[in-house]
Specification:
Blueprint (H helix, E strand, L loop, with lengths): L18 H5 L3 H11 L2 H26 L5 H18 L8 H20 L4 H21 L5 H8 L3 H10 L1 H13 L5 H5 L12 H15 L3 H12 L4 H8 L3 H24 L1
Helix pairs in contact: 2-3, 3-4, 3-5, 4-5, 7-8, 8-14, 9-14, 11-14, 12-14, 13-14
Length: 273
């Protein structure tokens, strides 16, 4: 089997258990055994167990990212992330491996969107216009504008504004990630719940950012809070969320985009304060 990662000695690759015994181990025990032995067979066994997680997150993201990459391409990139994550994961941090991998996979998808620069110029221009208008109106009102206020400010009908949200949904997410990156955070790291008893000491800046983000989410409408919770915490895709809410997938995309617009304004206000 093809080896990846650091080269290990013949002694290190000899596992103290047989393949049959390894297959009986749970994921945590298998991970610990691999880290102790460096046995590449154990590594691939572990990777194969987590392949469904890669596919699930890729499917979840496809509702937003279907225009820039094939599902198989996302899964292939995800498997490379998974292989790297097995070696980079630090179990003494008291963070679940599944949580660590999920965060890395989502980050990979956003990076993939940035690298491919797949957005048509017209869509990119619309996104810039929407973000600028949101910032301007929020500054005038001293709060996040409502959808009807945004539509009026842009000279659109409510339906046209909702369509614009759907069309620029992915650009909105990438834009939101860029704002977070400017102050050292990522959307998934901030939205994921902290593990109980996690001893990791976060920077003051990140903790403040998390609090601002929580305040922003708390100020949202219930359907916006629910969409964010179902997408980031429950890891449902757009179609599954649509079934839960009894609306169309396009409507879920609009709600998601609108929620991220709100959070982007909250974060920018925090940065500029």
């Amino acid at each position: 089997m093809k080896q990846t990662g650091a080269v290990v000695s013949q002694e290190e690759t000899q596992s103290p258990v047989s393949q049959e015994q390894a297959e009986q181990l749970d994921n945590q025990a298998l991970l610990e055994l691999y880290r102790k032995t460096g046995d590449q067979e154990l590594k691939w066994m572990l990777v194969m167990r987590y392949t469904p997680l890669v596919r699930r997150i890729a499917l979840q993201a496809s509702g937003l990212y279907s225009n820039f990459a094939q599902l198989d391409d996302i899964i292939q990139e995800g498997l490379l992330v998974l292989l790297n994550a097995v070696d980079k994961f630090e179990p003494d941090k008291n963070v679940k491996f599944e949580t660590y991998v999920s965060t890395r996979l989502r980050g990979m998808i956003v990076d993939l969107a940035r690298r491919q620069d797949w957005l048509p110029r017209q869509v990119r221009q619309k996104s810039v216009r929407l973000n600028r208008a949101t910032d301007e109106l929020a500054g005038k009102l001293g709060r996040m504008p409502r959808s009807d206020e945004m539509a009026e400010y842009l000279g659109m009908t409510r339906e046209q504004y909702e369509a614009l949200l759907s069309e620029t949904a992915v650009s909105t997410l990438v834009s939101f990630e860029a704002v977070l990156d400017s102050c050292g955070g990522t959307a998934d790291k901030l939205m994921l719940q902290k593990e109980p008893g996690n001893p990791i000491e976060e920077s003051v800046q990140e903790e403040e950012l998390r609090q601002v983000l929580a305040q922003g989410v708390a100020s949202m409408r219930k359907n916006e809070q629910l969409v964010l919770s179902l997408y980031y915490e429950k890891e449902l895709n757009m179609k599954e969320i649509a079934q839960v809410l009894g609306v169309s997938a396009a409507r879920v995309s609009q709600i998601h985009s609108r929620a991220l617009q709100r959070l982007r304004v909250y974060i920018q206000n925090y940065i500029q304060a």
